[in-house]
C-alpha cells in the first residue's frame, strides 16, 4: 500500500489541492445558500400581499391568478434580477480596481466612475433624448471611463497613497455631482425621478433592462476571469510582473476598461448604487485571507461577485422590512448600501497607517509690496462685484436708481427689485467669505490643500440638520435652522474627530474618515427628502446645490455675526495655524497643544460652515479653491493668506450668484452650480500640478 508520505511528488500536491478546495467550495456553497434564502424573502416583499407559496404556484400554468403572475413577472423577479446583476457587476468591478491600484479603497465610487456614468446618463435624459439600452450603456461607460481616467492620472494609479486616491475621486465626484444637479434643476420636465435614481434603485418596470444587461455583464465577468492570472502576478509589483512576462500597462488598461464597463452597466440598470464596489471585494478579501488558496483572483473574483449580490439583495430586503411598502418603493436601495459602505470606509481608514502629509500647503514667499498690491486689487474687485450684483439680474437697474433707492425716492418697480436683491448680494458675499475662512482652517489643520469642509463631513452634516428642519417644520425661522445646522455640523465633526483618533487624529486619517462620514450624511439627506417630501426634491436640490434664492436680512445675520467673531480670532492665531500646518512634531516642540488647537480650529470651521449654509446652502468648491489661490498669490503665512482667501471667497460666490441670475434670466442658476463649474477646472489643474513625481 502506498501511503501519502511515500507517494510520488506529483501526486501529493494533487491531494493537497483537493483538501484545500473543500473549504473554498464550502464557503461558496454557504454564500449561495444565503443568497437563495434572501431571494426567497425578497420575492415575498412588496405592496401586494402575496406569499412565497402563491408566487411559486404562479410559475406553473394555471397554478394561480393573473394578479400573482403579473406581480411576479413584471415587478418582483425583475427587481430581484436587477439586484443580483448589479451586485455581481459592481462587486467584480471593485475587486479589479483594487487589484489594479493595489489599494483597498479603490472602487467605482472612490474613483468617480459612478459619478461620471450618472452625469452622462442624466445629460442625455435632460435634453429629451431617448436612447436604446445599449447606446445608453455606452454613454454611461464613456462618462465613467473619463472620470476614472482623470482620477487615476492625478493619483498615479493609486501609487500616491490611499488618501490622495480617495480625495481625488471624491472631489471629482463632487464636481460631477454639481453638474448633475445643474441639469436636474434646468431640465426638471425631462428628468422626473432621476434625483432618487441617482442614489441607486433596483425598482424595475418589466424585464427588458435586466434581460439586455445580463449577457453583457456575463461576458465582461468572463473576460475579467481570463485576466485572473495576470492580476495575480500584478500583485507582486510592476517589476516582478514584467520579469514574469506580463505587460503591466496593457493589463491595467484592459482591466480598468472591463471594470468601468461593469460599473456603467450597473448604473444603466439601477443607477449608481453606492459603495457596493468597495464593500464586496473588501469583505471577500477578508474572508479569503482566512482560507488557504482562496486569495487567487480565479476564486476571489467570483466570490466578490457573490458578496456583491448578497449586499444589494440584503439591502433591498432590509429596506422593505424597515419602511412601509408604499414608502420603500420611493427610497433607493443605494442609500442603505452607502450607509453600510461608509461605515466600512471609516473602519478601513482607522486601520490604515498614516502616510504623513498628503500634499504640502506651503507656497512661495511673496514680497510685502506684492501682498499690498494683491490686497488693493482684491478689495477693488470685491467692491466692483458688489455694485455689479446690485445692478444686474433679471432686470438691470442703474447707479442712479440705486442712489434713489438708498434715499427712499425710487419708483415702485426699482424699490421692489432692489429690496429683493440686496439680501441675496450680501448673502453671497458673506457666505463665500465664511466658507473660504472655514476652508483655510480645514486645509491648515489637515495639512492638505485638497481638503475642504464638504469633504470632512462638516457641510453634509449641516445639510442633514437644515433639510430636516425645513421639511419637518415648514416656515420656521432662520435661527432654529441655524441652530440645528450648527449642532449637526459640530456633531458630525465630533464624530469624525473621534473616529479618526486612534493613536492621534493624523492628517490622512481625518480626511479619509471625513469622506466616509460625508457619504453617510449625504445619504441621510437624500433619505430625509424622499421619506418626508418625495415630491419636493427641487427644494433639496436648491439647498444641496447652494443658492441665495429668496434670502432675507434675517438669514444674513447669523453668518455676519459668526464671521465678525471668527475672522479676528483666526488672524490673531495665525502663528499657531502656521505651526499646526507644518507637521505633528514641530508644534509640540514649540509648546503648542496640538490636539486642543486642532479641535478648537475645526470647531470654529464647523460653526462657520453652518452659518454659511443658512445664507447660501451647501455650496461647494469655495472652501477648496479660495485658500489655495490665496496661498499662490501671497504665500503660505496665514496672517496674509487668510484675509486674501476671505476676499476671494466673497468675490467668487458674488460673481457666481450674479452670473446665475443674469446669464439665463429670467431662469436662475444656483450659485453653487456656477462655483462648481468655475472651480472644477481649477481643481483639476490643481490636482495635476500637485501630482507626486
List the helices and strands and how they pair.
Layout: H1 12-44, H2 52-59, H3 66-101, H4 113-126, H5 133-154, H6 162-186, H7 194-197, H8 208-226, H9 228-234, H10 238-243, H11 248-270, H12 276-288, H13 297-322, H14 325-328, H15 334-351, H16 368-391, H17 399-407, H18 412-446, H19 458-472, H20 478-499, H21 507-532, H22 537-545, H23 553-572, H24 574-580, H25 586-589, H26 594-616, H27 622-634, H28 638-662, H29 671-689
Task: Please outline what is shown here.
With 693 residues, the chain is mostly helical.
The Cα radius of gyration reads: 27 Å
The CATH superfamily of the largest domain is identified as ABC transporter involved in vitamin B12 uptake, BtuC
Query: Low-confidence segments, ≥5 residues, pLDDT <50?
Result: 1-14, 355-362
Number of strands: 0
Count helical runs.
Answer: 29
Fraction in beta strands = under 5%
Query: Which range best describes the helical content: under 10%, 10-25%, 25-40%, 40-55%, 55-70% or over 70%?
Result: over 70%
Tell me the structural class: mainly alpha
Profile the largest sheet: none
Please give the alpha-carbon distance between the first and last residues: 64 Å
Give me the strand/helix succession: HHHHHHHHHHHHHHHHHHHHHHHHHHHHH
The first-level CATH class name of the largest domain: Mainly Alpha
Q: So what's the overall shape?
A: globular
Number of domains: 2
Global mean pLDDT? 80
CATH third-level topology of the largest domain: ABC transporter involved in vitamin B12 uptake, BtuC
CATH architecture label name of the largest domain: Orthogonal Bundle
